[in-house]
Amino acid sequence: MSVEHDSFSVRREYPHPPAQVFAAWADPARKLRWFDLSGGPAPDYRCDFRVGGDETLRTSGLAYRATYRDIVQDERIVYTYEVVAQERLASVSVASVQLRPTPGGTELTYVESAAFLDGLDDADTRTRGTGTQLHRLATVLEEER
After folding, report:
1. Which of 126, 136, 119 is nearest to 7 (CA)?
2. What's the Cα-to-Cα distance from 72 to each of 75, 90, 95, 97, 102, rounded to whole Å?
3. What range defines the domain where residue 58 resides?
4. What is the 3-state secondary structure (H, E, C) of 2-32?
5. What is the DSSP letter of 41?
6. To 10 degrees, the CA torsion angle through 129, 26, 55, 118?
7. CATH number, domain at 122?
8. What is the pLDDT of residues 51-94, one digit of tens each?
9. Is 137 exposed, middle or buried (0-12, 13-18, 19+ CB in 10 A)?
């Protein structure tokens, strides 16, 4: 039994205004298009995007459960979440998304601090996964132009 604590951040620039980037997080149908990395059949996904609201994603062998803690329209999202893998708690995290307007669109800064449990998950894997999601977010935003 072990616990490893780690933090990471990822920054991305999008040529879209903060309101459009924020909406891609806030709208459940849009978010699912870039957030789900399972590659399997349609997952069980629910999202109640409001302070105190929950978000869940269940795929084969993995469950993600989040609670939104702070939301500032077009500027900030703060949430806590856990990942369950192989029916065991794999990690618990606090994450924030900050959106800043730039002359060319939006700078997104994602910061996460996590406790990774019993070797079931790790910061390197999570950082790569988050990077992939944010790349897919760019694709979804471009498709909506």
Report:
1. 126
2. 5, 29, 14, 10, 18
3. 3-36+45-143
4. CEEEEEEEEEEEECCCHHHHHHHHHCHHHHH
5. S
6. 20
7. 3.30.530.20
8. 999 999 999 889 999 999 999 999 999 999 999 998 999 999 99
9. buried
Please state the φ and ψ torsions of residue 24, each to the nearest 5 degrees: -70, -20
Rounded-to-integer distance, Cα 88 and Cα 76, Å? 30
Neighbours of 22 (CB within 10 A): 22
Three-class secondary structure of residue 130 per DSSP: helix
Structure tokens at 110: 């994602």
Query: At 34, is the pLDDT very low, low, confident or very high (cuts 50, 70, 90)?
Result: very high
Residue 98: what pLDDT? 98
**At which residue do the structure tokens 């893998």 appear?**
85
* pLDDT reported for residue 130: 97
Rounded to 5°, the CA angle 63-57-23 comes to 145
Question: Number of structural domains, the chain?
Answer: 1
Q: Is the pTM of this model over 0.85?
A: yes
